[in-house]
Design goal:
4 domains, 10-stranded mixed beta sheet
Length: 522
Amino acid sequence: MADAEGQVIVGLEVHCQLDTLSKLFCGCSTDYRSDGPNTHVCPICLGLPGAMPALNKRAIEYAMKVAKALNCEIISEAEFSRKNYFYPDLDKAYQITQYDKPLALGGYLEIESDEGGEKKVRLTRIHVEEDPGRLVHMGNTERGKYSLVDYNRAGIPLIEIVSEPDMRSPKEARKFLNKLRATLEYLSVFDSEKEGSLRVDANISIKGSERVEVKNITSYKGVEKALTFEVTRQKNLIRRGQTIDRETRHYLEARGITQSARSKEQEHDYRYFPEPDLRPLRVKSWVDNIVLPELPDARRERFIARYGCSLSHARTLTGELKLANFFEQVVAADPQGLSPLAATWIADTLIGELNYRDMSLDRVEPAAMTGLVRILKKGTITDKSGVEVLRVMLDQRHRKEPDNTIKVAWSLTNDEGKVTLAAEKIPVSEAGIKRTIIEAPETPEAIVQRLALAKHTGDDRVITAAIQEAIAENPKALGDYYAGKAGALNFLVGQVMKKTRGKADPADLNRMLAEALKTRGP
Ligand SMILES: [Zn+2]
């Protein structure tokens, strides 16, 4: 690929926690997020002398599923190695990972390019390793009095997926991550909603300059933000004639900036050597028995063929497993009749309203959405009223407690403020909080009735009256209209819309207004 001078070049290293029940080398449960610190530990994941690791077969199966789905080659004899370094999050003072013989090589993932077409991002390798523990710094790392360590996370199976530097913008990097997340979820090996289940290191350079590594990015949005910051920073340096240092930088999520990591800290000598307590992995033959489910690309094509979705709607709807399932549930009763409208209302309107409320799709009943789409299809309400009904539906569900427990954080307070260690769920009654009981949410039909949103159609007298009022109240716009000024008609339409509170059928309204203006004359 030939890149012009100044071209942005991005490669990613993505760490994903595999959603197994137990850790990679011991039987400790991976379901630690609601529990107190250091409650999911044993001699193996604490690295006590003499404890022997026993490989979790399921984790290897999951990793191979990913490798197959991403078109990688499984190598015939993979090996675990010890990566030695001394840091408090690493209880054994080494991490069991894969070095020169990773599980899988090559492969690719297809994403939507900045130009709108499909492009292949090549992969370098996928390897399996254990997650280190988690450090909680009391205060910032320089001035804090002490740090706390939680080994609940130590030993959780991770895969590291390393891409080639094939992405050409922060936006493409985000698309790569979204596509990767969707693929892992379709494979049922990953839960993106678990905090910290995905972490990214990004390599970014401007063609012709040195490469910078940005570490520590823990959110999907963070990747695009961190890279956008870096593009601006690096391009500014080049503009001023300064050189870009080859260095590692940390992303500070709260401030949205990257900061140079002191280079000394990065000069590790990991002294990799083969892990003597684990045998080489000869699992290449397993790959033939792995049956892959329908993956995002195939589902996207099916949505276009079966439901007549546009490419852009099909991409959005299949971009998340839950959303794709939701869409199919909504249209199940009448795929032919409901699909086009449902695709628009889910991919465009519903997603926007959910994001605005920071609300998850889980809280929306597919049946309620089907009800709304049916009403819209019948044409008994306008699109504007449709949005109003949807908002009422979401607000009613938003307020409802999802279950009868709430999360209580385990936290400590120090000079710098409150530090959350972990969270646990306790019954609401114990927390002394009264649960607001909300009646069963209203159906879309009931909302239409209660708010009297039924559309005014035909030669409705409400529309006629609103038109006459608008004409009488806006002599200037009227004059402009007859003088042939563009925009005057739209203004008048807007006035009538306002008076009918968005309940007039737009086609009827336009026709009746045009007639009224013609009859009246200048
Ligand atoms: Zn353990």
